[in-house]
Fold SGNH hydrolase-type esterase domain-containing protein.
Amino acid sequence: MSISIGGNDAGFSDTMTACVLNDDRTCLDRIATASAFIRGQLPAKLGRVYDAIGLQGTSHVVVLGYPRFYNPARHRLRRLSETKRTAINKAADLLDSVVADRARSHGFGLRRRQHHL
């Protein structure tokens, strides 16, 4: 079984929308909210889901990590400032790290996705 979990809980879709449609301050505020959730609430939520999967007796679980969204060398979305791209990547790294830590603590396999989209 493979799963990817956490990004929707952290509001990454809304965060990306806020960053594309608004100024740097609005983007950074939304990223700060998502990052606070990732640090504060997401580990317990992941733990509950991973515990439930473990109770199902699934023999092999692989948790997919989260990539960095922007490669600074390839500015695909020119509407996003360097400030926004850097902050989004930092939040994606945080999400990937929390997901990876919880997956390892439950004995699940992990596939890190370090490439850029």
Remarks:
- Residues 2-111 form a domain with the Rossmann fold fold (CATH 3.40.50.1110).
- DSSP finds four helices and three strands in the chain.
- The first strand starts at residue 2 and ends at 3.
